[in-house]
Design goal:
This protein is an alpha+beta fold. It is 33% helix and 17% strand. Helix 3 packs antiparallel against helix 5. Bound molecules: flavin mononucleotide (FMN).
Length: 176
């Protein structure tokens, strides 16, 4: 288990997974608990999480998502969704779902899993295609699909810090 801020700096998108290493119920519960700790507008928590560890479903998802071939080797996937019956503003559903997605990615990393965020929102054709797998009703708006498994690749930490993107007190006054 990684601790504290190390998790933030070492998370990477992991697209290769160990075969035959299942994710236990405890770990699934842990990452979903973290997802549901995310901030949400007016604390509505308007999300749902469609979870699969079924090989046929993972294979089908890999065929349906245009950039989701890694799902073929994934151990599980989580589709983070918003519910228009809980929050009518679609933009809020997307933002809240994004916050939950990032929490889930960080929790997965801290538990020794590898994961990658696959884009769903706002592509309606992807949402419609994946209804075949999860059978969700019209009020459910998929925000992201997360491919998860124990990592079979290692990546260095990102060095994305760009001082020129930081504007101190006003636009144009850069950091250092
Ligand atoms: C909204 C969003 C959509 C993404 N969609 C995909 C995707 O469809 N397929 C994929 O392999 N990665 C996808 N990614 C992952 C990005 O490619 C990845 O985060 C980026 O290249 C930076 O790499 P890192 O996560 O290792 O820092 C997506 C990320 C975000 C935030």
């Amino acid at each position: 288990m990684l601790q504290n801020s190390e998790i933030l700096f070492t998370r990477r998108s992991i697209r290769k997974y160990k075969k035959d290493k299942p994710v236990s119920d405890d770990v699934v519960g842990f990452i979903l608990d973290a997802a549901m700790c995310a901030p949400s507008a007016r604390n509505k928590q308007p999300w749902h999480f469609l979870v699969t560890r079924n090989r046929q479903k993972l294979d089908k998802l890999s065929e349906l998502h245009p950039y989701g071939k890694m799902l073929k080797d994934a151990t599980m996937a989580v589709m983070v969704c918003g519910d228009t019956k809980l929050e009518e503003r679609e933009s809020a559903l997307a933002l809240n779902g994004a916050a939950a997605t990032q929490n889930l990615l960080l929790a997965a990393h801290s538990a020794g899993l590898g994961a990658v965020w696959l884009g769903m929102y706002p592509r309606k054709e992807r949402a419609d295609a994946m209804r075949e797998v999860f059978d969700y009703p019209e009020n459910i708006i998929p925000v992201s699909l997360i491919s998860i498994g124990y990592p079979a690749e290692e990546k260095p930490r990102n060095n994305n810090f760009k001082p020129e993107r930081i504007h101190l007190e006003k636009w144009g006054e850069n950091w250092q």
